[in-house]
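2024-03-11 09:14:02 INFO receiving multi-entity request
2024-03-11 09:14:02 INFO entity count = two
2024-03-11 09:14:03 INFO echoing inputs for audit
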Amino acid sequence: MNLTRAAPWPAGTAPFADPGETELLELSLGPQHPSTHGVFRMNALLDGETVVRLQPVFGYLHRNHEQLAERMSYLASMPFTDRLDYFCSLTNNWAYALTVEKLAGLEVPERAEYLRVILAELTRLQNHTVFLGFLLGDMGAWGSVLMYGFRQRDAVLDLFEALTGSRMMCDYLRFGGCRCDLPPGWAAAARLVVDSYPGFLDEMEQLLTENEILRARTMGIGGVEAKRLVNAGVSGPLLRAAGLSHDLRKVDRYGIYDRFSFRIPLGEKGDVYDRLMIRLLEMRESLNILDSALRDLPEGPVINPQAKLRNFRPPAGEAYGRIESPKGELGFYLISDQSPQPYRYRVRPPSLINLTLLEEMCVGAKIADVMVILGSIDIVLGEVDR
Amino acid sequence: MAVTIPSDAAPPPGRTSLAFPARRPGLTLAAAAGVLVVGTTLLVLLLDRKAPGILTGAVVEALAHPATAPLILKAGVLGWLAEGWGLGEPWLGLASISLSLFTIVAVFMGLFALTSIVERKVLARIQNRYGPNRAGLWGLLQPVADGIKMLTKEDIVPAGGDRWMHLLAPVMLAVPAFLVLALLPYGPGMTVVELGVGILFFFALGASAEVAVFMAGWSSNNKYSLLGAMRAIAQMISYEMPLLLAALAVVMLAGTLSPTLMVEAQAGHAFGFVPQWFVFTPWGLVGFVLFFIAALAESNRSPFDLPEGESELVAGHMTEYSGFRYAVFFLAEYIGLFGICGFAVALFLGGWHAPLPVLDFIPGYLWFFLKLYGLVLLAIWIRGTMPRVRIDQLLAFSWLFLIPTGFCVLAGAALWHFTGGGWLGWLVVTPVVTAPYFLLLPRLQSAEANALRTYRFSEE
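2024-03-11 09:21:47 INFO inference complete, emitting structure
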């Protein structure tokens, strides 16, 4: 017996069956709202507290990213990719560099490949760490989990700052390698951070996974059939939480991911709880990758000497490069006409495409669930609106 | 875990290091205490010239007998008014009431200022932050800064809102919250209004808060406010029931509706050291937990802060309030929390009684405030650790679990009375009051949600 779900009213006996008596409430959530993760907006139609219809409205943070990139040199777009998903500038850099390297046929030295893997996995760690905090914030536990996450993430950001000079807008990767080599002592410091992470994850799991209120708020919320997710082009942790094993690090084996052994955690229901757990488990796998990457890091150059920084003109053609960013499949599509600027520059942002099924996830849920579902998709408006 | 990155930042001119300059908290506090003591002494001596000996005599007497100091001081001031100013009835009676009211309001306003900073500090410490520490020593002047900020803000009435209702709502919330304070038994003979049906009056005042919250939500002409107000109504009506049922058990066993007599019924120690508070009986323990949970919901505290539900409803019924009116809402919520925690202390935690006989030398009113503040700190702790529940879960929790538990507590109290307490009472009452926890609580969620999940891994 389940006490919380009342049996439906027998036909014709519902107290407010006449639509003339009740009215649906149209509520515009956002763009100025404490938990729409930036300037996202949703037009919701509510029946009491239950969502009947929900329409996402984008574009409040549109910055003309793609058109700008078509008016400047290839390299000049690199710092702009930092601003797409501003939590994960290094993976954005990598996706863009990967596409240009594909277009120009550039090789990447081994040490640079290792550095890219290390930085991408550190990025995944810190992104998932703050994700937990923001999700709990959406559930009303303001601050506590977020601050614990920030404390841990700061250690990673310190590493980024020591290496790239910036905590969030790193602009570190270059076509054919990386901008500079590691400062002395960086690898040892990174090792310390990696070693401190399992303890932090244990603490988080203890704090979150057994909490009654958290379980009640997340279980059975926001789940969508796996087939629908595939049809909508959803990727990343959302897809894996629904039980589909799709990780570009395994599918494409871009970079040197074929050298590392790691597993892909898979959920079953695809609800918010699964999404949260998948990210927690993914962090442990990232730690394994980091462990072996830091161990095997070879010596050598960090950038291909043939790579031209000035007057860089890739041969005519087109290329689509994609990586598994912390939020899903991040792809760049470039067409070159041999000029110094790309003829066409297109971003496939995971945040935007993962939002496709937002209405389907939210209809029938309560208004408070909408925020939790939105939080569990893990969007960044810089990437949604570009 | 922090990575040390060498910093070449130079200290500002005139400073040798980047660290904060050392503070002298002991010195500042001692100076403040000194100014307070000397100022008060001078004031008393000055006022005493009107009717020599009465005020100073009362102060000396009060210092000698701290347990009844407030009563002695009040009698002293009344005597001073009668002697020095020749005041007679009915003015003396009015002065007596005013003195009590002024003291209570001043104490609780101070407690409110203190709690507003303590809450932020404690939350900050839970969350690995410092909290406010700029205004004054340890940030202790932050309430003053907040007050000035609130008072200087623009007072906005939303377009299309109901102007008068919008103005009245915070007052309607604050007045009953303050009235509750008049009923609390602070110490022996220290209740402002000795009301025979105090507990009934307390529930009547609690119910009027719902009207105020709905007025705020309705008059704001804002959909968030309206949704928040509707939540508040549903929540407060649902949680008044368990509150009432838990209090009813105490009424049954104490045989009175007066909070003072309820506290007196909890006097004494079993075996010489176990206090005879109701919380140390099986029905009282469950009743206290029930009362406290319902109290959190009644005063809109986390994890039941749905009417404000800032993740979805921005600020609920307070969305359109700014400036002084918002400050009054803020004040009323805290005063409401103090009042309801005070009742929890009086009903279950033995009111002004000391936990151990050897601690009886500490005045009763201090014990009362210590216990009250302990409950407030507990509420702050809960706020720092819990996510918020959803509206349907909130209502189901009350109607399907707390209210049945309330009835079990009533039955338990009755059984306790008929068995006469003791080991037989424990044996009979414990299963009755804990039954809902084992029988009803697991059914609040589906079996699927209770099950632990396992995750599989793919190598591909």
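2024-03-11 09:21:48 INFO post-check: The longest strand of chain A covers residues 317-325.
2024-03-11 09:21:48 INFO post-check: Chain A touches chain B through 65 residues (CB under 8 Å).
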